[in-house]
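An instance noted here:
***
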Amino acid sequence: MTHKFDAVIVGAGAAGLFCAAIAGQRGLKVLVIDHSEKVAEKIRISGGGRCNFTNREVTPGNFLSENPHFCRSALAGYTPQDFIALLQKHGVPFHEKHKGQLFCDHSAEDIINLLLAECAAGNVERWQPCSVKKVTFSDIDNASSPINSRAGSYQIDTDRGLIETPQLVIATGGLSIPKIGATDFGYRIAQQFGLALVEPRPALVPLTFDGEAWQPFAQLAGLALPVQIETGAADATPKQRKKATVFAEDLLFTHKGLSGPAVLQISSFWREGQSLRVNLAPGQDLAQTLLRGKASSKKLIANELASVVPSRLADAWASTDAALQRPICDATDKALTGLAERLADWQILPNGSEGYKKAEVTAGGVDTRGLSSQTMESKQPGLYFIGEVVDVTGWLGGYNFQWAWASGFACGNELVGKSQ
């Protein structure tokens, strides 16, 4: 028996469920399939279990892509205010935590229940767990197409039977967090139908360090402090530094290297072999502070330094240079000025990242130059890609969920049924 639907969506995550709800409520016969037994597991674990579901301040500039203007249309078509209105309709309480980031008051389950309720309102059918064995496409004449505007039909062979549909939506996400079911399925489908990929890589991910130079800082696990962080080599010109990506967030030392919002943000822009620059005391005149301390104190340099950075960091930093292990009153002005400059421009070279197992998202993906920015349809008729599987990656702070809602909305409104 062949099961027929107006549209089939592979992936029961944020983008897939939202797209299905939009299309279903427009009268389409929609099926969502996912190989995982649980629905929307990434929503469930996000934001410490409270789901940072959007950001009030979303702009296209908060996203990375090799085709940076692609996201504009979808983001304009479905805004954070639109999703906030949906939460209010369902009575989901939420709060703003930091820099426009919105979280559920109670639990991420509130977002999942909202999406399932919206799908139910559209009579969306869902098969879980259900694995896709094979996808094929058959050309047919427009006149005989079950949906006149389409010129073909997809046959999807699953472990629950054969499915036929003129419209197939891939919402399978990226490679991040494989323990909750991430796979490369979406990329394989894109390649099967001749679409290009931007090489996927871990993003919003902790960075790792090794070597003798890192040893003094390896014992600082758990230490956090506000910093300013940017990409850029030590020999970068002023013009290059002006163009560098810069974030002002908290940095966290870990057993393997660095994490925290500052590092997660910059990791999306970082490339292997590239150094980072960190200001460990932003907004402070370190040189003036240290020189003033020299004139009035007999404390060790590390103890005086602890007035502007955490004491554990001050001790670790002083341990790297014998010249710093003395009373501040015995240090030369040049030594103190040099110390201030190094603290304000700490140049470090990551040796890698913690990879997809710790990455919150996957950068890269289906090349958007093969997709419509208005509808998410690919050059292959009736084949759509939405959400994280696409080469659109948001900053930390709710931006990736907003891309899921926006791209799902754009696609869900484009899909057509037999009567449309």
Notes: The chain is about 30% helix and 25% strand. The first strand starts at residue 2 and ends at 4. Residues 143-149 have pLDDT under 50 and may be disordered. The chain has two domains: 2-202+360-414, 207-353.
